[in-house]
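Workshop exercise sheet. Pairs work together: one partner reads the sequence aloud, the other fills in the structure field after running the prediction. Swap roles for the next sheet.
Pair: D.N. / O.F.
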Amino acid sequence: MLVACEKDVVDEATSNVVREANALLQVTTRGTNDATVSYPVQVYVFQGDDCKAVQTIGDEGQTLNIPLVEGTYSVYAIAGASATDYTLPTKDNATATTALTLKEGRTLTDLMAASATATLVDGGTNTVTLGMTRKTMLIQDVTIKKIPTAATAVSVTIAPLWQALTVSGAFANAGQSQTIALTKQADNRTWKLPSPFGEGSGVRLLPPSSQPASVSVNITSGGATKTYTYSCSDQLEAAYKINIDGTYTEAVGVNLTGTITGATWLGERTISFEFDENGSSTSGNNDNSDNIPSVGDTYQGCYVLAVDDADDYAELTLLSPTELTGIEYTTDMQAHIEAALATVTDGDISGWEVPTTAEAHLMYNAREAIGNLTANSYLYHNGTGYRAFAPSAEAFSPISSLKASTVLRPVATVSITKD
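Structure field:
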């Protein structure tokens, strides 16, 4: 139990007024979709952009009691993040968009996240129970069979992935990849996920930062590495277990089958992979020429707001041509907005989201080039809540109160490879 008092200092014209804590926020956690909560749970409490408290729930039976000044607070929780594995934001430097970064040599844990809004009144107690949602996927098993005996290394690469989770539970640092080295088995032809992973455990990854994700098998022989890459037709998502089973055939390369099972996670899905020589490349001998759109171009009918160019691929930030109207401003804004986003079918693109503050600025700066920003205000998310901005303003200007006429113009990030 925590007994320390929180004090706010308010500067006024003639004096400093010290407000002592006069209300209590109680925080507990529970799992969703039959998931067991990963402990410890880091809890961050914000009032506006100011972090007012950072506390840790160490086990299932613990309830946090946080004394605060009356008012409205945003409560964020990240489960499975310990100070041993992660560099954790403190009260002094935490923002809703601050990332929890892995320490060198540590591996991703079973991260979960939740958030809620709590309003405290003078002398009152508000109990918030946070339903944790799993944010990682689990590569549970990888088996590649009939590999030539001359092979000296085999690995699997999955990309593009998110690299970090923020305090608010949002994903951060797009376009990363994860390569998983396999171990040769006793028959000299089979390569598997090594111990201490194996059955019942696995490698945890954050989900793809854009879809479709790619799965590559890398086979090294005679000092050269051949890569066989498949673009997944089904989405790889958080809270799924993934098993990859492949067979190498010299005539066609590698044929892979994959099964995504839910167990106590989020259900079951089967996906098929096919790798052949036409889809392979040799390390160090790629002849890629740029086929990447520029800012201001269109891609699959969507306006390109930003381009993050890498050696062999690029991340495009796209603005949908679809304007979603009739957004109801309710207490469950998140569910309402997610339902609206699910109706967007522009191009062969998924993962549509509400623009961030940075993306709202991009929309404003490109308003003349975009040409069809027809509404007076557009929805965006500033990291702590939903806001609106006016594209017709002489300078970017947030609107403090949402209006019934505010329109949602979704954005998405896609990764495309260079020819």
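Discussion prompt: Confidence is low (pLDDT under 50) at residues 1-16, 257-264, 267-272, 278-289. What would you look at next?
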